[in-house]
Records
---
Amino acid sequence: MDFTEYKIGYYRRWQKRILGISWTMFITVFALEIVVGLFPLIYGNLPPSFLDYCIKNIVLPSSMNFVCLIIATILVGSPALTIMQKNYTVLFLFLAIVAVISFFHNYYQIVFLLPCAALFIAALLTDKKLLSTIFISAMAVAVFSMLLWFITKPGDSFQLKIGTAVAVVAVHCASYYFSNAILFSVQEQIDFIYDGYLKQQQLLDELQLEPLTRLYNRAALAEAISSCIKTYKETDGLLMIALIDLDNFKSVNDKYGHANGDIVLIAFAELMIKILGGSRNVFRYGGDEFVILFKNQNLRAIESSAEKICFSFTEMKFDFMDRRTRLSASMGIAAYHSGMTSKEWFESADSAAYAAKSAGKNQFVVVL
């Protein structure tokens, strides 16, 4: 897991929490307004403005919040948006809900401070630009809410309104200052936790590396396959496994010796790492067999990588080997389907590799 994957997991957890908080706020305010509206009915003293109250304080604000919640929930679950766009979506959803509360329920002046809560939530997402954007938006919400209050409550004293406005602006500025401090503190904690994770991962990696090729070993492969299957539903692309068998490798050992055979294995491992851009998903299964896990890639990209590996291996030359001798590899690639066990998935790739050898070697067969 690199730092980007770690942050994505962190952001996704907070997106779900912010959505949950937003839904809770919506339900709570809706319920409170209904309870307040029921008092006249209970005491049999229904005012002439009761219908206006229901429309202004229950129907209109609740409808607006409900629409915002539905749209945000759909967007957060959409693969079309980036993780950062989803961060903005949930934060502006929360701000939209507190804005509606501030606009429609400003008979309680305390609601002018609600937008400050969005600042502290934004700080937890450790994005300075997002925090600044939310601060400007929250201040705009507070100012507009107070303007509505000035207009709709002419009976309140001018001194009270000015004092309230100054206090609200001051609290928002102070909240922005403290939110910045929280943001840097959370970022330091994330960095500290991830540094510790990396150190631990380095120790574990050493135990899972195969000593000759420095690829991950069979035990690491079993863990990786299990992890892929568990997270299959969260992936956006294909999940495929490739089993590679070097053609006629026994004859290399017999003719040139095991030491030179090791040189071929090391060279092939380095070739795969170069083509695939790293060794995270490359494994030595045993002997002259290797495994590659392809995660979240389209079929064309996977086939292109397989073709490059097969072709490049045939072009490799070794000093100890006759220059006319060409080495080759056969590869079986199998897609994972929901419900498959790790054994079934691996056996599907194994059968595809056998089919590639039976068809003449130096090729790959894909099973979708």
---
Amino acid sequence: MNDSLVIAGKTYGSRLLVGTGKYKDFDETRAAIDASGAEIVTVAIRRTNIGQNADEPNLLDVLPPDRFTLLPNTAGCYTADDAVRTLRLARELLDGHTLVKLEVLGDPDTLFPNMPETLKAAETLVKDGFDVMVYCSDDPIQAKMLEEIGCVAVMPLASLIGSGMGILNPWNLRLIIDQSAVPVLVDAGVGTASDAAIAMELGCDGVLMNTAIAKAQDPILMARAMRKGVEAGREAFLAGRMPRKTYAASPSSPTTGLIGR
């Protein structure tokens, strides 16, 4: 089945995007990402060395850019100015790379997005030639505003970053999906494979996760499970589920034409 994810004009076979933080070491990071089948990996520029610190291990030695699409992100940024500065640094370190993940946080406890600052940063980055994938609240109005600014994908949270609480507001996600002309990916809150499957069954174009894999008891096995969950959810969405019936049973086998009738 030819069912590819297209972001900023580039085609991907996997609809699972994964982070690179919170693993015990770079070897585990690479093993989990290989197990996940992900082609896009997001990197926190403020927390991970991709060449800015010459004397430290470099993530790019483990995840080479010719094998994976790197998605620099602005984790840890609380203002539009900090986010823009961080992604301009990433572009320099990665030889003009323009696909980025924008997140501007509003609160250090919940890590909920600061949407006014997010909108401000998105507008600046798009004008500066970046292809912006953006972490946002599950507010359909603000998601539409980000699309109109020119973001190449909107990524509403399912629940708080690192919470593992799963899909808390499927109705808002459906509203965003139904109105969007750009890919919609769930970002944050996925805890296990069934959460990923639910997101995909709703019609999301993909799922981005980090903690759910990195902090599992067996990250490699969980990465495989997430891969299967995303694939199963996508196929179920494309297949189209049977109608729900709350008032009458419907037998699996026909009752007409039975012997003796």
